[in-house]
């Protein structure tokens, strides 16, 4: 079967299997951490398919953290209003908000959800990776692996020539981001428990260019008893791309439809919408979604990790899949980088599992709950009832901004104690004081004491390869200097060629008198900033008379520690680094 055997005995740090959103985000996160990556993709060329189109604010923050948010802001469409039509296809029965619009705020600058086709998301991530000299190796398929104490030996098949060529590749770590049918998961022998039947009717997702519909809305016709069509815009104009979802008992995935025959697709659109003016000019492809809701019981085994759909299958209702996949990658990337550099112990990697498992389990519950609404008829849009159909409204919970890991063994909170065994609302509830394990908010208006003109934001300080330690104090005295020095000292454990592990930042109130500042040492990375508008203090719930607090933000933009001082700092970093300070 194989033309020849190429035996490559190089030990690369990480091999990422699968060039979808999870694999690309993981590779980018590792690259940003200075860890060389090889990323392979079975497909010979990038697939043009909309699939995961909804990008929630938390994912946009992940992209901002990875330095790749700008193309998404340029290309993504912030559309949230839905329109349902009468049976004549043209009369608008009702218009409503599919989800409540959250406008950007100083602490949540990416608060608006965006629509962007998944192929374009993947292209933006690939572009960002190429800046690190990392190119997705298309046409290379993962076949098998063996792992031992020092690495993973992987068998690959290169389809770039005919017949395909077998290769052996050895890496320290293997990341299986090869989607729902993951060969890595199967080879790992990981369980994939859940349910596949009786979860509601099938849906067909299509991706088209189409004329004559207003791109300012999601449009819906029909009901689940017979047929329903949802049409939503993708990307900003001049793009004419739309995603169309056909659902309901009368929907059949005929061979000619799935083959993408334009007249057959056109006929399906005409029948499900009752209109004849929605003209398809190009079809990118159709996919059948069959109910399948599953997840692994562990995201890793020794040197092999599962991320994204390789670890979880879920309904598209709620648009959580790709978002969760990118967030898996972000959670794992910085941890794996620290362990690879021997700055954290291998046992630290178990926190990927501890932090993500409950989140994914809840994601499955939420998306399943929504998919059940379709079965129960709660998504029938074409009723005379003027209220929005329950199945076509989404709670703000799904924007993922409340996701947290309060229970994580590596977060330290000296302000709000975590109650072991107590109820945990994984997707978070609005309100309440900021806690360790929550997403770390941004804040603008941070003015550098040294230069006075350089203004930055907290998001501008955070990054995927370092912790940012925010010392909130009203003065720049000896206690503050000692804490900043203690934080900076962690940088001594990293080899000189690595970027800093900890960025120490003194955040002073606007009342602070500049002349009272102590100048940092000339080569110090310590930043001293005035929180000019008090937005940072507000976002982190720190009042001026609260005394000194240190908030440690992890590389993945999660609050890792909220501590009073030196003891808390030591406690936090003793759970991260394997070298005592
Ligand atoms: C129709 C539809 C609509 C959706 N809508 C949304 C939405 O709005 N929002 C959302 O968040 N999610 C949505 N999702 C889910 C989303 O598409 C997935 O969750 C997402 O693609 C997962 O990313 P991934 O990188 O884990 O896997 P994938 O995107 O599946 O990528 C896996 C990659 O691995 C490659 N691969 C597979 N096997 C091998 C191998 N042996 N060797 C090498 N490479 C291999 C595959 O070719 C593929 O490119 C939708 C899904 C569908 C089908």
Automatic annotation (TrEMBL):
Gene3D superfamilies named in the record: 3.30.70.2450, 3.40.30.20, FAD/NAD(P)-binding domain
One of the record's GO molecular function terms? FAD binding
Q: Which UniProt keywords apply?
A: FAD, Flavoprotein, Oxidoreductase
Show the SUPFAM superfamilies listed in the entry: FAD/NAD(P)-binding domain
Query: Which cofactor is essential here?
Result: FAD
Q: Which InterPro entries match?
A: FAD-bd, FAD/NAD-bd_sf, PHOX_C_sf, RIFMO-like
Q: This protein's superkingdom?
A: Eukaryota
FAD-binding domain spans which residues? 13-365
Q: Name one Pfam family in it.
A: FAD_binding_3
For this entry, the protein name equals FAD-binding domain-containing protein
- Organism equals Botryobasidium botryosum (strain FD-172 SS1)
């Amino acid at each position: 079967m194989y033309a020849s055997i190429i035996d490559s005995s190089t030990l690369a740090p990480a091999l990422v299997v699968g060039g979808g959103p999870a694999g690309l985000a993981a590779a980018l996160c590792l690259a940003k951490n200075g860890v060389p990556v090889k990323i392979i993709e079975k497909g010979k060329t990038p697939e043009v398919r909309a699939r995961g189109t909804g990008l929630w604010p938390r994912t946009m923050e992940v992209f901002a953290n990875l330095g790749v948010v700008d193309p998404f802001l340029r290309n993504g469409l912030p559309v949230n209003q839905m329109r349902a039509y009468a049976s004549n296809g043209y009369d608008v029965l009702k218009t409503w908000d599919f989800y409540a619009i959250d406008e950007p705020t100083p602490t949540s600058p990416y608060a608006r959800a965006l629509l962007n086709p998944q192929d374009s998301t993947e292209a933006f991530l690939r572009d960002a990776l190429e800046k690190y000299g990392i190119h997705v190796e298309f046409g290379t398929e993962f076949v098998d692996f063996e792992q031992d104490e020092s690495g993973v030996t992987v068998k690959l098949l290169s389809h770039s020539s005919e017949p395909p060529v077998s290769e052996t590749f050895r890496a320290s770590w293997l990341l299986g981001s090869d989607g729902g049918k993951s060969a890595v998961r199967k080879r790992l022998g990981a369980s994939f428990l859940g349910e596949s039947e009786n979860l509601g009717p099938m849906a067909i997702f299509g991706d088209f260019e189409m004329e004559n519909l207003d791109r300012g809305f999601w449009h819906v016709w029909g009901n689940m008893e017979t047929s329903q069509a949802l049409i939503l815009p993708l990307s900003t104009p001049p793009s004419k791309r739309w995603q169309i979802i056909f659902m309901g008992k009368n929907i059949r995935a005929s061979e000619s439809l799935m083959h993408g025959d334009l007249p057959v697709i056109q006929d399906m659109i005409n029948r499900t919408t009752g209109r004849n003016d929605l003209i398809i000019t190009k079809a990118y492809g159709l996919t059948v979604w069959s109910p399948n809701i599953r997840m692994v019981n562990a995201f890793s085994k020794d040197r092999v990790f599962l991320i994204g759909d390789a670890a979880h299958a879920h309904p598209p209702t709620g648009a959580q899949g790709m978002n969760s996949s990118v967030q898996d990658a972000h959670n794992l990337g910085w941890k794996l980088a620290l362990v690879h550099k021997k700055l954290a112990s291998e046992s630290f990697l178990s926190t990927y599992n501890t932090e993500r498992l409950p989140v994914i389990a809840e994601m499955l519950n939420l998306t399943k709950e929504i998919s059940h609404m379709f079965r129960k008829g709660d998504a029938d849009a074409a009723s005379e009832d003027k209220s929005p159909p329950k199945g076509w409204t989404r709670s703000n919970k799904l924007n993922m901004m409340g996701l947290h890991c309060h229970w994580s063994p590596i977060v330290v909170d000296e302000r709000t104690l975590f109650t072991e065994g107590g109820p945990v609302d994984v997707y978070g509830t609005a309100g309440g004081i900021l806690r360790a394990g929550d997403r770390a908010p941004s804040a603008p208006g941070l003015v550098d004491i040294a230069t006075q003109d350089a203004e930055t934001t907290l998001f501008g300080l955070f990054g995927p390869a370092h912790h940012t330690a925010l010392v909130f104090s009203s003065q720049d005295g000896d206690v503050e200097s000692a804490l900043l020095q203690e934080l900076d000292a962690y940088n001594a454990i990293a080899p000189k060629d690595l970027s800093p592990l900890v960025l120490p930042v003194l955040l002073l109130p606007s009342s602070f008198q500049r002349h009272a500042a102590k100048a940092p040492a000339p080569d110090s990375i310590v930043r001293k900033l005035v929180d000019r508008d008090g937005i940072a203090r507000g976002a982190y719930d720190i009042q001026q008379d609260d005394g000194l607090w240190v908030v440690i933000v992890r590389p993945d933009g999660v609050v890792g520690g909220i501590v009073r001082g030196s003891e808390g700092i030591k406690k936090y970093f003793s759970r991260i680094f394997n070298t005592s300070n």
